[in-house]
Design goal:
The chain is an alpha+beta fold. The protein is 30% helix and 14% strand.
């Protein structure tokens, strides 16, 4: 039998979704947005579909039966976003923000109430020059010159025998290109053509104790199964400066003592209920197997790898403190309570909400 190979890679995904509004609501919102109307796209607009589908990478949402947003707004200035927020709030429309990240659950495209999408495609950071990184054979990156890296590797990991010839120096932006599967130029990155459209589901964990050999063997066995060849397990090491930051400094609490983060990811190409059920079941079985080897009380999760399996608010995005605490403490640990206090002060009406948004009390 031919050898099977388990491949670990990092892929960015985005998701999809939608809901419409009545004619009166449509007209009133359009009038409210009159000063920035040139950036507003209704379903009748020629650009509506192209913007809507431009960076959706998860076919699980692209092929869903959810209705589409009432409008897509593509602002170019900060003040225009403020206008969209005020008009949406005034006329009873929710907001979803379309960007480019690990939106595995479609929360930047989907809502079960009338809503609009704010597409931030035209908000692009300036490219910084002058910084260099080194990409080594195991796709690690180091901010600095390769001579510094080689000296550090000889001190910390002499077993690898890293030499200058093993390393390549790039500017930051070219390092990004070097790990891209499709983009070949900076212009390609701006066009966001690095899109791999599949159905997918993801989950996450944090690890604060070294996994025993039995765990690694169990993981390998599951990744090597022939019918699960698109099941991935990605481990991102922590440490360094991250250990010097207090858990309560910002909402992200996974600091000193965290060895690494795990991302579980499964892709499948056949868009039918049977294949979807089978694929997600495989993902959940691996996640269940890993339970003894990861954090607990709570079993932590990474907010940028959204996972509605760990808990969700009501369909309209509203929830009590106790309901949201189920998932909130897994993302934010002790910082969840502070986030609720802040949200209750700055968004008392709970306008900004979704299936995993911070509640108000």
């Amino acid at each position: 039998m031919a050898a099977k190979v388990a491949i670990v890679s990092v892929v960015l995904f985005l998701a999809v979704s939608c809901v419409s509004c009545n004619n009166t609501q449509h007209q009133e919102f359009t009038r409210c947005m009159s000063l920035v109307r040139k950036h507003l796209h209704s379903p009748a607009s020629p650009q509506y579909s192209s913007i809507f589908f431009s960076s959706q990478q998860n076919r699980r949402w692209i092929n869903s039966t959810n209705s589409k947003p009432a409008f897509i707004f593509a602002p170019k200035q900060e003040a225009e976003i403020q206008t969209a927020v005020l008009c949406s709030k005034t006329h009873g429309l929710q907001i979803r923000v379309k960007s480019g990240g690990h939106d595995y659950e479609g929360l930047s495209f989907f809502a079960q109430v009338p809503y609009i999408i704010i597409a931030l495609d035209h908000f692009r950071d300036k490219i910084e020059h002058g910084h260099t990184t080194v990409k080594v054979a195991f796709t690690g990156q180091f901010l600095g010159r390769k001579g510094d890296l080689v000296r550090l590797m000889k001190k910390r990991f002499p077993e690898l025998g890293v030499q200058p010839i093993d390393c390549n120096e790039f500017s930051w932006i070219n390092a990004t290109l070097s790990i891209s599967s499709r983009a070949k130029t900076m212009e390609d990155l701006l066009k966001r053509i690095d899109v791999l459209r599949t159905n997918n589901k993801a989950k996450s964990d944090f690890v604060n104790k070294a996994m025993p050999e039995e765990a690694l063997l169990g993981v390998w066995k599951r990744l090597m199964k022939e019918d699960q060849h698109d099941l991935y397990m990605i481990m991102d090491p922590f440490g360094g400066v991250n250990n010097e930051i207090s858990e309560s400094e910002i909402p992200f609490p996974h600091r000193k003592g965290t060895l690494y983060n795990i991302q579980y990811l499964i892709n499948w190409n056949v868009s039918n209920a049977g294949e979807t059920h089978k694929s997600i079941k495989s993902m959940r079985k691996l996640y269940k197997f890993m339970e003894p080897f990861v954090t607990h009380s709570p079993r932590a999760a990474y907010i940028n790898y959204r996972d509605l399996d760990i808990g969700r608010n009501q369909p309209d995005g509203k929830a009590t403190y106790s309901q949201a605490r189920v998932w909130g403490e897994k993302y934010f640990k002790g910082n969840f309570a502070r986030l609720v206090q802040i949200k209750s002060r700055v968004d008392r009406g709970n306008f900004f909400r979704n299936e995993q948004s911070i509640p108000v009390v």
